[in-house]
Amino acid sequence: MIDLHWATVTTIIFGMIFVFLGAGLPVAVALGSVGIASTFFFLQGKGMGIIGYAAWDMSNSFILGAVPLFIFMGQLLLHSGISQRLYEGSTAMMGKAKGGLLQTNIFACAIFATISGSSVATAATVGYMAVPEMEKRGYDRRMTMGSLAAGGTLGILIPPSTSMIIYGVMVEQSIGQLFIAGILPGIMLAFLFMAYIWMAVARRPELAPVFEIMAWRDRLAKIILMWPIFLIMSVVLVGIYAGFVTPAESAAVGASIALALALAFRKLTWDMLWSSLLDTVRSTSMLLFIMIGASIVSGTLGLMRIPDQMTSWVVSLQMPPVLILLAIYALYLFLGCFIDAVSMVVLTIPVVFPIIVKLGYDPIWFGVVLVILIEMAMITPPVGLNLFTIHGIRPERPLSDVIKGSMPFLVMMFVALAILTVFPAIAIWLPSTMRPV
User: Which of 9, 129, 168, 244 is the most exposed, having the fewest neighbouring CB atoms within 10 Å of its CB?
Assistant: First the structure.
């Protein structure tokens, strides 16, 4: 093993990763290549066995089986058209709420998040239903796009969440507890978004034109149309919370119900099933290869004891834990401007998580905080994926409209992060009441 200071080795490894990513290499290829090269160079080939072990251990993880099943569940509801009931029902439920369809955007994203573990899928699904209707009614474009981009981020905070699964697998924490921990913070963030809309429209009514409210009978009929989504949401979340099923089992049950509903509504065709399966395979393969590449890098770092040495160095600084925590927040906010959410998690967790544990912070709480930081990255230029997703609905309009419309919601995320830091029980309390599986 080459004798170099741990800080030098860490700088070289992460520098190589950013160079490869900047050169346009796929994330999985960049991570895997750097991991293999680091093992060969710094360990002089003595740790090459970690490559095969990392690939096998990650791909053989039982809990990761929940990822394709949750994705498949969401794809079935999307391609079968059942999710289209969501926006009409959400509009009816919002009624006379100040902000009209802007409030509906947030509410619909929060509900769709319970059947989709992806921010991009949530933003795109609700966005394609909402944008034409809101343009026809004359809503402010920036507020429209901002509410959809920000609302879509709820897709990875409110369970199920692929990001929480990835985090839980990497740090060996309960996926079920992580899911349940995200419920109250997710509701809190949705309310903060809706509160901002209410205040903005109260000050500038022209942002959200008043439209005729449906009669109670018509509203009730629209709300009832949402029963398939409420059914799946209840089965998945209640099953996990009550300890009846594991997250992987709940994913299987949810996907089975979605398949049965598509069949019952006569929407199940070979083309629809093929499209759902193909999108599921694409998303799952991308995530799995990224995690395998990250495992090789983290395995190499572990063999060189870099996380341990970095943790010892941070503790030796004798700084207040909250200042170190704020520095970690700043790191994620900075990285979120340049790399995508999944890459940010798999790159940093092997180094950051030991520090968090050493400082005495709860791993479940930090998982929720990490997801909020990832959400902020989703609407932070220049690589915020939700910004480009919403812009893609109306590409003829400037991207700056989406960015400017999202910034006030980014401020609300800062508020949510501050509240969760001061009152960690918001995330920790509900999981502590769970019945063990």
Answer: 244
- CB of 374 within 8 A of CB of 61? no
CA 256 – CA 284 distance, rounded (Å): 18
Contact assessment for residue 297 and residue 38, using Cβ atoms and an 8 Å cutoff: yes
Global pTM reads 0.86
- The string of pLDDT tens digits covering residues 201-232 is 989 888 888 766 667 777 788 888 888 888 88
Which are the contacts of 148, defined by CB distance < 8 A and separation ≥ 6? Answer: 105, 109, 123, 126, 127, 130, 131, 390
179, 168 in Cβ contact below 8 A? no
DSSP 382-421: TS-HHHHHHHTTSTTS-HHHHHHHHHHHHHHHHHHHHHHH
Token pair for residue 331?
């790191």
Q: How far apart are CA 38 and CA 51, in angstroms?
A: 11
Half-sphere exposure of 11 (CA within 13 A, CB side): 5
